[in-house]
Amino acid sequence: MEKRVVFRSPWLPYALVAPQLAITIVFFFWPAAQAVWFSFQLQDAFGLKTQFVGLDNFATLFRDSHYLASFKTTAVFSILVAFGGIVISLLFATMADRVLRGALAYKTLLIWPYAVAPAVAGVLWAFLFAPSIGIVTYVLKGMGVNWNWIIQGDQAMLLVVMASVWKQISYNFLFFLAGLQSIPKSLIEAAAIDGAGPGRRFWTIVFPLLSPTTFFLLVVNIVYAFFETFGVIDATTQGGPAGATQILVYKVYHDGVKAADLGGSSAQSVILMFIVIALTVAQFRFIERKVNY
Amino acid sequence: MRIKILAAAIAAAGAFAAPAQAQVEIQWWHSMGGALGEKLNVLADKFNASQKDYKIVTSFKGAYPVSMTAAIAAFRAGNAPHLLQVFEVGTATMMAAKGAIVPVATVMANAKEPFDPKAYLPTVTGYYTDQKGNMLSFPFNSSTVMFYVNKDAFKKAGLDPDKAPKTWKEVLAAAEKLKAAGQECVYTTSWPSWMHIENFSAWHNVPIGTKENGFGGLDTAFTVNSPLHVRHLTMLGDMAKKGLFTYAGRTNQGDAKFSSGECAMFSGSTGAQAGIRQAGKFAWSINFIPYHDDVAGAPQNSIIGGASVWVMGGKKPEEYKGVAKFMAFLSTSEIQMEWHTGTGYVPITQAAYQMTKKSGFYDKDPGAELAVKQLTNKAPTANSKGLRFGNFVQGRTVIEEEMESVFAGKKDAKTALDDAVKRGNEILRQFEAANK
Description:
Helix content of chain A: over 70%
Number of helices of chain B: 20
Largest sheet of chain A: 2 strands, antiparallel
Radius of gyration of chain B: 24 Å
Shape of chain B: globular
Distance between the termini of chain A: 19 Å
Oligomer: heterodimer
Number of helices of chain A: 12
Shape of chain A: globular
Strand order of the largest sheet of chain A: 1-2
Distance between the termini of chain B: 55 Å
Structural class of chain B: alpha/beta
Strand content of chain A: under 5%
């Protein structure tokens, strides 16, 4: 039987959701609408002259081979960040779930990086891996690895992926740990009695039962990789070398904030918005079917 | 009724009293962090102490692009500062914003402050002057690019430490010897586009773009794919392949590579000297930047980097009077010499240069004079007075991306520079359309 709470007053439910709606409208819908409006305009930096140019900004973008290349860069980056972050934190969560002594210390240490701002995380990793003064570079040089992300695009990509994943592991870890702890122990014990090994228990019981969490984290991590990683990139590679780490959101930031090209930057953010909307819809339509609730 | 009269009386009294009592405050947003910021505040304090009518209030707003963005946002919201320090690549953007800015020449003329554009060093002010000779913004901190040599490394490689390479041919010869002697990083550079495209072009008297490097109009186009540019970038690419050139990054990352002793030769800003003096544990020299000796007319003169102060529009007349007074104060030889000797930035007036020379400062610090000499090596031509390209923040990023693809061995120099011109011109057309 369905339980329904019915409000007596007709306006109370609206009043209760009004603050949340107001915040969403002011901080999400309004700026998004403004971005759409700006994307059809050509404006000088100070906003003194504004012309309506229709789809010109978009046409300019798609003529730029580097912009098209940054779609590929973004795809590679997002997949690496989302999958890397999910796999590593799942591993950590299953490990931490089994620890009996000192579990709190492990958990605290694993959650810690979440409190670090993206830009700070970027600087931290950039220092460790700095081409001439970094500690890790020094060790790598000793092992004969030519580490120089200033000029080698693949290494630059590796660096920003590591920094972004590291930043996100804590968040994923928390959700996985909570998910693991909500799996009834009796199920696992029953399987163990039936003779299933740890690997089999994980893949046939734990992993399917974790699938709602994994799905949620997939969506969140993709959004994170698309939008929130520009701080890491700005603090380390700034999109270089030669555009190797130029992901879409970083170019939005560079063109809009640093280069004061509002029309071009808005057009890019509109494209980015559509990509993420499409991705999220696709995830809900196709991947969610495989989720067991 | 009585209250109204009283209120009117108070208002009237206030109106009369205000000019006599209140100082006119002038807001100055700048990007000088650390020690430079302290030196800037000393200038403001000195001006404030020198008279009673005006007060300069300085505030540090972060790095150049950050403070410019902040000022643009403030202007859109209707509360821009009076004075704004803008880096040289932002010049065209500021200049095109008629209505947002007031040319310095106009401010000085309206306030009837004595102002003689000829008193200033042409290469320094030329960058910030329009075609009719009106100074648009006030050159505040100007540097240029120099060539540094680690003398100890030269000695170790069997080279004469007192003879720094003058031409790129000599640089290559020295580089081979340094490499053979086991020098790990032979040559590096900071600010790759500023050094190897912008200054390179001026030094060899070739254009960076049509229409006098953009001074002549918004319908300018880049010309950095000329045979000479291709040849130079090919040379750098080859050096990188042979391990004779180590790329350090797009900003001043090369400075640390030289001052730590890692690299033996280095192209960097005059501003790098302070850091080398502090960290360098070796003998070094500062020199003119190298040139290709088979290019007719080279070396010409180098161009500046750094920033200038723009006067923002829409303020009260008495505030502009204060601005004019402050600029006149900044131009005095004493203040210029103090700023020049204290920070390493070049002086902006002939008189200040002569005064510093007479004081004997250059005997102790020859590098400081070398920068002035290099900037004034010859009278600037249309190719060497600076550049004025719209949205050059993006334009420079494009050039640097393409240079990086050469250093990484992904493109040859010709393809990279052709691409830089093609992509750069898109940006210029966009800017032209936005500022018609």
